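Hi R.,

Here are the chain sequences for the assembly we discussed:
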Amino acid sequence: MLRLSRTARLMLISVVCLILLFMYVPLFVLILNSFNESQISGWPIRGFSTKWWEFARTYKPIRDALLNSVLVASGSVIIASILGTLVAFAMKGFTFFGKGTVNILVVLPIALPGVVTGVAFSNTYSNFLSPTGFNIGYFGMIVAHATFCIVMVFNNVFARLRRMNPNLQEASADLGAGLWQTFRLVTFPQFRTSFAAGALLAFALSFDEVVVTIFTAPPGIDTLPLWILKEVGRPNQASVVNVVATVVIVLSLVPVYISQRLARAQENEN
Amino acid sequence: MSDTSMSRQRRPISSYLLRRPKVRLLGLLALPMTWIVGVYILSLFLLLVTAFWNVDPFTSLVSPAFNLENFRLIFTNSAYIATSIRTLFIALAVTTVCVVFAVPLGIFMAKIASPRLRNALAVAITLPLWAGYLVKVIAMRLVFTEEGFFNWLMAPLGIRGPGFSIPIVILTLTYLWFPYMALPVYTAIRQIPPILFDASSDMGAKGFVTVYRVVLPLIVPAIIAGSVFTFSLSLGDYLAARFTGGSTQMIGSIIAANINLNPPVAAAYSMVPITFVVIYLMVARRTGSLERM
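And here is the predicted structure of the full complex:
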């Protein structure tokens, strides 16, 4: 056992409490400020009011931004799920020259700073594609998001494939099933929870992304984080930002809950 | 036998592919590699190319050229150099603060807390990761603003916060990335065999000596793995500086400010964080810590 004196223990406990306060107090300050009657956020809260919630509920720019976020995240997840799964199968079933490079290529979009990825896409879109008359517009965001989401699906599916029994696929082939039939009836059911978990992470990543989005969003189009970003700078409606941020915090609990359920389902499968 | 031969005839594509693994591999990799190389790597390459280009002073459009002017600017202009150094300092400071808090937290969770408390703490540390990047930045902004929570809390003691400045940027980035350090450090401490603690204690080592001479050397790989996140993520960040840093500028601030006005300069300056991150990854790789990630 680790022998610690009383004072050492007390010090450790106070450090842990300090960390917890540091992690949660800002979030609570934010949530409580969404009920602040005043336009200017601060502490202590001047008066309790739900007027910013009422305001946010019907405010069109927020709804549009939310819709855009969902659209972009869904589009990127669909692309990233297909590409990530394909790479996972290649990395699992084969040894080939340049395997390490493929691995790095998949991780790179998330390993490099977001500002670099964003600037790279923005530069390609506006200085190379636009001059040739091709305007990528809305799809530019989805392309960028899909690129850094691939790794999420890849990681999850690959981890599962590594633990799968390859004999089942061979057995299926021996019994006369085609590759597609084997995939549909034998392979996919074995990794679908990991696939769903990866897709969920990718969705959350895209939904939360802001830096790459700043550089790739077409003018006049806001995702939810972009809308928050624009509003924080303005002094007028600061409290409504806190409402949206609170909604984001609450929404973030949904994937946590689902991923817990998926993790349990995965344990049962093994 | 006749069954398989029949199905072979029925599924010509499958049997063709089954006999040719190389074609299968090509089929699997074609689409994803076309996407990543054709979209992402090409964009990075074009960014590098743009770094050598000019902005036409009359049309303010980017025009192809080959000059090193942009690179000369970022390596000789004192504002660019100062920003690079400041950003590097902030990223290292964030990493240090994360380590300083992650180690006692990990020791408490792994060695002192009851299993129940341990699990609760693990959840409590992971949960904010999901809460949204921008949400956390504006939460910190609310805490440290002039009329904010921190100044209110400290008012009875006569203390006022520093206002939006570099220390608050470091704190905000720590707030954002702390779980990436805390979780691997905690996992590593849990994996230390209990016998080592007994042995250290039997030989008369007190708690701090054990932590310093047994625990720390064993968790270095985890600290390096965590630092890859805290360091690279801080290095590329600029929204924390924008919202909690007052006039503090980081590398990202300057890249973002230039991307529309002067894309070649933005492109050239983008090579600085890429270089820092690659060097850091290579050093981390040499220590063999990345295999654990």
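The two ends of chain A are 34 Å apart (CA to CA). The first helix of chain A runs from residue 6 to 33.

Let me know if anything looks off.

Best,
T.
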